[in-house]
């Protein structure tokens, strides 16, 4: 059965704290607990949490209360100095190298097909079901990949701008993905993104990536090679980051992977800003009231 890799190393700077640990369910559940609950029901049997050492004790203590003994659990540190031989951290850099490096940190622990997701997003139970079904049909030696996409208008926050990987598809396959920043609605309600302070209108029906991917284990060898190329090109830049959507987009363009877009009725939501939290709390309560979840995820 496939493994689930959860990227939980981010601090949530706009939110102002560790979103991964914020209680939003009716019994204090975190969004992370909903992810694991849905993943286990879908058939995932192994989870790897990518975290940072500076909050590892707090994170492990909370996770161990609810998940260990129910699913195989591993903890992986994303470390600034985890670099290929011959490379070193530029003087003054303190931030790790992005989500590509985070996933690469799982090498040696992932031998099976695996999904990758954020720790602080709610993806919906059906998203895990379609991902497990897709990964179970693939040969571990395949270079093909999967992505669960969501409509852009359903991923925005009324309290500020967001960044999204905006997707173009051809015959059900991802043909390109472009990171757009500062996406939001203007005073007239038109959705737009800014680039070099120039606004460009969007329909809101665009499919975007919320970082829910499905990969074969062969990806990890590819990431090792691509990390070297990234560091050679941008390794001395203080704020350079190596993102999964950019890596996948390059692999599509060079024919190294074909990414099938997975169709799902799942609802995405998340907490980008503190003001988003009441909406998430109310949505989760409604799901419990509708018996889509048991009265408590905690037994």
TrEMBL record:
Nucleotidyl transferase domain: residues covered: 5-136
Name of the protein in question: Nucleotidyl transferase domain-containing protein
Pfam families attached to this UniProt entry: NTP_transferase (PF00483)
InterPro entries tied to this protein: NTP_transferase_dom, Nucleotide-diphossugar_trans
Superkingdom to which the source organism belongs: Bacteria
């Amino acid at each position: 059965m496939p493994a689930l890799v959860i990227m939980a190393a981010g601090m949530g700077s706009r939110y102002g704290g560790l979103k991964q640990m914020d209680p939003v369910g009716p019994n204090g559940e975190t969004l992370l607990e909903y992810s694991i609950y849905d993943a286990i029901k879908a058939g995932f049997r192994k989870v790897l949490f990518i975290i940072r050492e500076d909050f590892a004790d707090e994170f492990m203590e909370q996770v161990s209360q609810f998940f260990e003994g129910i699913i195989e659990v591993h903890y992986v540190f994303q470390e600034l100095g985890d670099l290929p031989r011959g490379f070193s951290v530029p003087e003054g850099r303190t931030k790790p190298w992005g989500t590509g490096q985070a996933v690469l940190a799982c090498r040696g622990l992932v031998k099976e097909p695996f999904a990758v997701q954020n720790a602080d997003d709610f993806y919906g139970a059906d998203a895990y079901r379609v991902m497990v079904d897709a990964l179970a049909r693939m040969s571990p030696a395949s270079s093909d990949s999967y992505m669960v996409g969501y409509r852009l208008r359903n991923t925005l926050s009324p309290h500020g701008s967001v960044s999204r990987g905006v997707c173009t598809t051809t015959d059900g396959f991802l043909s390109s993905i472009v990171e757009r920043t500062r996406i939001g609605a203007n005073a007239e309600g038109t959705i737009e993104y800014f680039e070099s302070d120039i606004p460009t209108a969007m329909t809101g029906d665009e499919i975007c990536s919320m970082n829910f991917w499905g990969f074969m284990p062969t990806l990890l060898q590819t990431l090792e090679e691509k990390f070297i190329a990234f560091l050679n090109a941008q390794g001395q830049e203080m704020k350079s980051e190596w993102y999964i959507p950019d890596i996948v987009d390059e692999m599509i363009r060079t024919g190294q992977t074909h990414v099938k877009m997975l169709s799902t009725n799942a609802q995405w939501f998340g907490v980008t800003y503190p003001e988003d939290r009441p909406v998430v709390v109310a949505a989760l309560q409604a799901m419990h009231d509708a018996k889509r979840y048991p009265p408590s995820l905690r037994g």
